[in-house]
Design goal:
Length: about 200
């Protein structure tokens, strides 16, 4: 169904179901709904049309709003992580290594990218948030991926010069900066990924 616009009323129903589950702190229902919609619509549409809008709507500074947003984020993360996961699969030679930038704890978008790559049969390995640059370098040496995508949610962690230096240290690996935190132009040979769809085209 990718490429065919979803009727607005169907998208609104999905928003309501996800919001209701979050407000009831029902993580199992959130994750089950994420898997259901990913299977039916595809990960990109799920992420762009449902997850991001609902997360944006629920974000707030009141204690109640923050708690609901956290419940939603955790349920979405679990659903994305179990979607199309093959527990026995390792990272192939041309696979993609995914990591959060140093000190970056908010990497939900990276879980969406991992799920979308698995959906397309692209091998990937998500090593988690807030990975120090030396640790990421060590992971690249051991896993030998074809590409690395580093997620930054905030300009505080999106250091253009740092990912550029990392890319120059590994000239045989394609290095990408993903997420909204990379507000400055990336230092070549690192390349910016502007959206989930763009990331899939590149990776």
């Amino acid at each position: 169904m990718s490429g065919i616009p979803m009727p607005a009323e169907i998208v609104q129903v999905a928003h309501k179901r996800l919001t209701a589950a979050a407000e009831e702190f029902d993580g199992s229902r959130i994750s089950a709904l994420v898997v259901e919609l990913a299977e039916e619509w595809g990960v990109v549409r799920l992420w762009d049309d449902v997850c991001v809008p609902v997360l944006t709507t629920l974000s707030g500074y009141s204690p109640a709003g923050i708690a609901v947003e956290h419940a939603l984020s955790e349920g979405v993360r679990v659903g994305l992580d179990v979607f199309r996961r093959d527990q026995g699969a390792g990272l192939p030679a041309d696979g993609v290594l995914l990591a959060g930038a140093e000190q970056e704890e908010h990497c939900l978008g990276l879980h969406a990218l991992a799920a979308a790559l698995r959906e397309r049969g692209q091998g990937c390995l998500l090593v988690g948030p807030a990975l120090p640059w030396p640790a990421l370098a060590s992971a690249v040496r051991r896993a030998r991926p074809g590409a690395v995508a580093v997620w930054s949610q905030s300009p505080v962690t999106g250091r253009s010069y740092r990912i550029g230096r990392f890319a120059r240290d590994f000239p045989a690996v394609r290095v990408y900066g993903a997420g909204p935190g990379w507000v400055e132009p990336l230092t070549p040979p690192a390349t910016r990924l502007d959206s989930l769809s763009a990331a899939l085209r590149e990776l």
